[in-house]
Amino acid sequence: MSILDIPVTTLAGAPTTLGELLGGKSALVVNVASRCGLTPQYGGLVQLQDTYGERGFTVVGVPCNQFMGQEPGSAEEIQEFCSTTYGVDFPLLEKTDVNGDTRHPLYRELIGDGGDIQWNFEKFLVSADGEVVGRFAPKVQPDDPTLVSSLEKML
């Protein structure tokens, strides 16, 4: 099975697959949280979406509450926070476990043999054909030259 075939559910509760959600675009998949010291990275993620969205790219946010309970809200609260505080207009998935026995299949595929997710805002570049082409640590900012260079090469 390709990573694009993995079933996911949007924050609004609609079942889909990663491939249907992306619609032929490449993506930066990021586990996000609203009450984290790294939460201001939402601003940089919105900027990436604005800059590269028309070139076949999207950010996909995956809320996760596994790191010190930093994403405690309901789907509605998460959506409202993201849209009103940061102007998020990229897709958000339902709250998901990214580590442990309940790790979502999307994260099993993203991580492969690469160990656990370290913290909120760990980032994975995924090509339009479903290949994981980069992994970036949580503190790597969305405008980091290495991340941006990898993104531009992928497009």
TrEMBL record:
Q: Does the keyword Oxidoreductase apply?
A: yes
Q: Which domain of life is it from?
A: Bacteria
Name this polypeptide is given: Glutathione peroxidase
* GO BP, sorted A to Z: cellular response to oxidative stress
Q: Where are the transmembrane segments?
A: none
Naturally occurring in which organism (per UniProt): Acrocarpospora pleiomorpha
Q: Mind telling me which InterPro entries this protein's record contains? A: Glutathione_peroxidase, Thioredoxin-like_sf
Protein family according to the UniProt entry: Belongs to the glutathione peroxidase family.
Q: Please report a single Pfam family linked to this protein.
A: GSHPx
Which UniProt keywords are present, listed alphabetically? Oxidoreductase, Peroxidase
What GO terms are given for molecular function? peroxidase activity
Which residues are annotated as active site? C36
